[in-house]
Amino acid sequence: MKKTIDIITMGCSKNLVDSEHLMGMMEANGYHCTHDSRNPKGEIVVINTCGFIHDAKQESINTILEFAQAKDNGHIEQLFVMGCLSERYAKELADEIPQVDKFYGKFDYKQLLSDLNASQAKGNERTLTTPHHYAYIKISEGCDRSCAYCAIPIITGKHVSRPIDEILTEVRNLVAQGTSEFQIIAQELTYYGIDIYGKQMIAELVERMAAIKGVKWIRLHYAYPAHFPWDLLRVMRENPKVCKYIDIALQHISDNMLKRMHRNVTKQQTYELVERLRAEVPGIHIRTTLMVGFPGETDDDFEQLVEFTRWAKFECMGAFAYSEEDGTYSSDHCVDDVTDEVKQSRLSRLTMLQENISAKTMAGKVGQTLRTVIDRKEGNWYIGRTEYSSPEVDPEVLIPSSERTLRVGRYYNVLITDAEEFDLYGTVVK
């Protein structure tokens, strides 16, 4: 009998997809796998790490140390580490944490399989760790952008698109298993297709996905503002299966910062982009990420960012303070001259502004009837999402379980009766 393997995933949903493929291949070879178990019981632990920013790297390191101690205490037999952090710092980590049996790069999971005598895996199996009704679909790997602060291209390499037919086959297979909602993810989805088709193909891919019977929602994550594929907006506007939602990381607004960050877009172009998104896709919800404290950020640069945020009224926004990443342009050529105190002050101010904007956005939904998918039941509440919310990161809809029995994975029309800063409350209507 094969041993049990506990797989721990750190970081983003792209890592989660990698873990799901690894689990599928392990299980195809007779292993029993658990994922993110609160109390791992397996003889073998595999940690899929994140190496993007300082806090994420530290969380990954702390997790490795926790399981290294568990191995010392005899609670697990073998410990393996893979993923982005391992890709960058395998030698350093091996020197510091000898309890780890072996470190693997981000793309070396097949070697891990071989080391566990699972080399006969076909490589196309996948075990979902999400609720059965939704899945992440990774359409490409890597990134050709050269943002000054970002280590992702160093870790993952150049942009590599998956063929359309391969993606559509994966979607059909998941639909056959009961999945109806698909989160399209990539480091930069607007670039999709250029490397293998010679042009941006994201709009065609989304249209062909939407044409698959059983697909109900498609949601787009991690777009880039420069050279945006405008035909994608037509697809979002005209196809009811494509959620009026886009995650597009804008990072900053001042020309000084955008130039220093190597973003290849201007302040005016960014304003025009947001205006066009809202004009061509009425009701669109925009999620973005903004950065404060990049080297050279002045008070004026930050005030421009505040004004932009106030003007744009992003439905969802995440913000973080700049941290130096080894090997990036900013690490090698810029002085991290914004103090931690200033970074935190600016971050707090931007976050408070966004909280007020989000509260008004949520309050504006009271009285609307919104299509809602049920993700889970917690205590006396069913927890669901509208098309304007991605799993785990965006506002949820709470429906009293006392009203009627609802089914996880089903879609209902929900009248929004109340709103808080990050949650909606509602009742199911016919």
Give an overview of the whole structure.
- The mean pLDDT is 90.
- A six-stranded parallel β-sheet has the order 6-9-10-11-12-13. A five-stranded parallel β-sheet has the order 2-1-3-4-5, sandwiched between helices. A five-stranded mixed barrel has the order 14-15-16-18-17.
- The protein folds into three domains: 4-115, 3-Layer(aba) Sandwich (Rossmann fold), CATH 3.40.50.12160; 134-363, pyruvate-formate lyase- activating enzyme (Alpha-Beta Horseshoe), CATH 3.80.30.20; 369-429, OB fold (Dihydrolipoamide Acetyltransferase, E2P), CATH 2.40.50.
- The termini are far apart.
- The chain is α/β, with parallel strands linked by helices and 430 residues long.
- It is built from 14 helices and 18 strands.
What's the topology here?
Blueprint: E1 4-9, H1 13-28, E2 32-35, E3 44-49, H2 54-72, E4 78-83, H3 84-96, E5 102-103, H4 109-115, E6 134-138, E7 140-141, H5 152-156, E8 160-161, H6 164-176, E9 181-185, H7 194-197, H8 202-210, E10 217-223, H9 231-238, E11 242-248, H10 255-260, H11 267-280, E12 285-292, H12 299-312, E13 316-321, H13 329-333, H14 340-363, E14 369-378, E15 381-386, E16 396-400, E17 411-419, E18 423-429
Parallel strand pairs: 1-2, 1-3, 3-4, 4-5, 6-9, 9-10, 10-11, 11-12, 12-13, 16-18
Antiparallel strand pairs: 7-8, 14-15, 14-17, 15-16, 17-18
Helix pairs in contact: 8-9, 12-14
Task: Name the features.
six-stranded parallel sheet, OB fold (Dihydrolipoamide Acetyltransferase, E2P), alpha/beta, pyruvate-formate lyase- activating enzyme, Rossmann fold, 430 residues, 37% helix, 18 strands, five-stranded parallel sheet, 3 domains
